[in-house]
Amino acid sequence: MAYTWEPRWEPYTVNVNGIIIKTCRDKVTGMIACPICINAVEKCLGGEAISGYKYEYSFFFTDEDLIKHIRDYHGGRIMFKKYHSGRRRGRRHGK
Ligand SMILES: [Zn+2]
After folding, report:
1. How far does the centroid of ligand 1 lie from the alpha carbon of residue 88, in Å?
2. Which of 3, 13, 70, 74 is buried most, with the most CB atoms less than 10 Å from its CB?
């Protein structure tokens, strides 16, 4: 699928039922990108590019759709660990 617009990413925080995910949102369309598919850390969260990263372009209209995609497509908790590990909050949730 070809996307003809140039996304203009801005940091965006998804918060659904206590699940918080930092990702990027396109300013133009307002669509939320999957942080794993586009490597949000690099695109808008100030991180470095990962060489050899296999980018995919997945966009969603609602927070819920993104959560569902991550659960179905990426297996959920893998990313929560990864993206929370850099935060300074000491709170641990679950195991
Ligand atoms: Zn994804």
Report:
1. 25
2. 70
| Residue 22 Cα to ligand 1 middle (Å) | 13
- pLDDT one-digit tens code per residue, 5-24: 678 999 999 999 888 999 99
**44: DSSP letter:** T
Distance 94 CA to ligand 1 centre (A): 23
Q: Reduced to 3 states, what is the DSSP secondary structure of residue 38?
A: helix
Q: Which residues lie closer than 8 Å to 43 by C-beta, 6 or more apart?
A: 9, 24, 33
The neighbourhood of ligand 1, an ion, using CB within 5 A, equals: 34, 36-37, 58
